[in-house]
Specification:
The complex is a heterodimer of chains A (112) and B (114).
Chain A lengths: L2 E3 L4 E5 L4 E3 L2 E3 L6 E7 L6 E7 L7 E2 L2 E6 L4 E6 L8 E9 L2 E4 L3 E6 L1
Parallel strand pairs in A: 2-12
Antiparallel strand pairs in A: 1-4, 3-9, 5-6, 5-10, 7-8, 8-9, 10-11, 10-12
Chain B lengths: L4 E3 L2 E4 L5 E6 L6 E7 L6 E7 L2 E5 L7 E4 L6 E5 L8 E8 L8 E2 L3 E5 L1
Parallel strand pairs in B: 2-11
Antiparallel strand pairs in B: 1-3, 3-8, 4-5, 4-9, 5-6, 7-8, 9-10, 9-11
Classes of the chains: A mainly beta (112), B mainly beta (114).
């Protein structure tokens, strides 16, 4: 079974600043997928960004980018130019075959 | 573009009662998943369908839980003889055909067992 660890329960960032969320995982598989999902308060979970393990290039989506270190089994998310709407719970997820394994989440609060 | 929908959004029930939740996936998606999320935690996998076939059930899914996807479209999750420990958010997700395809989540059904 794969385990996903998010070591930061809460993070706070000033609007327009940058915040980095950490995620590590444990697996013996070589071909897998990694995801960051965002869950705003009382709203549904939405995909932020996705990374294929076979790709060396780090994924980016507008203000969101990842630092994928396959050998270290690390997958951090950087949010640049933070906006108030980024306030949410962020989950790191490991995907292999059809199943997702999630970390416990990091609550991000963006301060005005 | 219609996303994944779930009904009801909230359900309050008394211990021992049966409840049923419905999930409608994105129309062209043939894979459907159920997860359970307790407060402050990440979702945990419960079960998975490819079309109408239920291909895996987690050990979290006790005998009181049953899921169906009769025509490969919508799915239902039934919990019999509910217990207080069943209180959680039940999330449904769907994806296209490949195991590599991204899963898209519905808004969830929040169950409270009194």
């Amino acid at each position: 079974a794969q385990t996903v660890t998010q070591s930061q329960p809460e993070m706070s960032v000033q609007e327009a600043e940058t915040v980095t969320l950490s995620c590590t995982y444990d697996t013996s598989e070589s071909n897998y997928y990694l995801f960051w999902y965002k869950q705003p308060p009382s709203r549904q979970m939405i995909l932020v960004i996705r990374q294929e393990a076979y790709k060396q290039q780090n994924a980016t989506e507008n203000r969101f980018s990842v630092n994928f270190q396959k050998a270290a089994k690390s997958f951090s998310l950087k949010i640049s130019d933070s906006q108030l709407g980024d306030t949410a719970m962020y989950f790191c997820a490991f995907g292999f075959d059809y199943k997702l394994s999630f970390g416990a989440g990091t609550t991000v609060t963006v301060r005005a | 573009d219609t996303g994944v929908s779930q009904d009801p959004r909230h359900k309050i029930t008394k211990r021992g009662q049966n409840v049923t939740f419905r999930c409608d996936p994105i129309s062209e998606h043939n894979r459907l998943y159920w997860y359970r999320q307790t407060l402050g935690q990440g979702p945990e996998f419960l079960t998975y369908f490819q079309n109408e076939a239920q291909l895996e059930k987690s050990r979290l899914l006790s005998d009181r839980f049953s899921a169906e996807r009769p025509k490969g479209s919508f799915s239902t999750l039934e919990i019999q003889r509910t217990e207080q420990g069943d209180s959680a958010m039940y999330l449904c997700a769907s994806s296209l055909r490949q195991h590599t395809d991204t899963q898209y989540f519905g808004p969830g059904t929040r169950l409270t067992v009194l």
